[in-house]
Design a protein that fits this description.
CATH topology: Four Helix Bundle (Hemerythrin (Met), subunit A)
InterPro entries: ICMT_MeTrfase (IPR007269), Metal_cation-efflux_comp (IPR052527)
Structural class: mainly alpha
Number of strands: 0
Organism: Panacibacter microcysteis
Transmembrane segments: 39-62, 68-86, 117-134
Strand content: under 5%
Subcellular location: Membrane
Shape: elongated
Order of helices and strands: HHHHHH
GO molecular function: protein C-terminal S-isoprenylcysteine carboxyl O-methyltransferase activity
Radius of gyration: 17 Å
Length: 185
């Protein structure tokens, strides 16, 4: 489990640093967020706390394998890496709060050619991995369903802002890409 603590610590530290360092600026349109960032942090904190607690008090294994937690950790790492790549590709247009930057450009290349929210795909994959790491159906559902739901709200808020900014170009982008998973959703 030491590996789990290392992965979790790196992930949490990276998210806290992003939250502190990559925020909208004074010249950006900041009025589009609707507090989704706050809701994300609250739901994540509650869901993960409950998921961990439930993993200690119940035994509902996903599979009967001793090392199944490594599958979850591998998904966590893959999700974190996918999120980092997506953030890097979005570059100066990435912020932790839903914002339209000055001179904002619609990203449609790299990962964004295939899905509209690859950063969210990555973070959701990491949360799926987190739930799987506990090898407990209840923990998996308690962590993943609320987190996924609040990210759906966040994506809707972000898409409204992008639609208002880019109009027909963003409508076409929506029609040609899926939100999180190519060809699926």
């Amino acid at each position: 489990m030491n590996l789990f603590y290392i992965i979790s610590g790196i992930w949490l530290t990276a998210e806290i640093l992003l939250n502190r360092l990559v925020r909208s600026g004074k010249g950006d349109n900041q009025k589009v967020d609707s507090n989704t960032e706050r809701y994300l942090w609250i739901v994540i904190a509650i869901a993960v706390t409950l998921g961990v607690y439930v993993s200690f008090i119940t035994y509902q294994p996903i599979v009967l394998l001793n090392n199944f937690s490594y599958v979850g950790m591998a998904l966590m790492i893959a999700g974190i890496l996918l999120r980092i790549i997506a953030i890097k590709q979005l570059g100066k247009y990435f912020t932790v709060d839903v914002t339209i930057r000055q001179e904002h450009q619609l990203m449609q290349s790299g990962l964004y050619k295939h899905v509209r929210h690859p950063s969210y795909t990555g973070v959701l994959l990491a949360f799926l991995g987190l739930g799987i790491t506990f090898n407990n159906w209840y923990s998996l559902l308690i962590i993943f369903i609320p987190v996924f739901s609040v990210f759906v709200i966040r994506m809707s808020t972000e898409e409204k802002a992008l639609l208002a900014q880019f109009g027909e170009a963003y409508k076409n982008y929506i029609n040609n890409t899926k939100r999180l998973l190519p060809f699926i959703y």
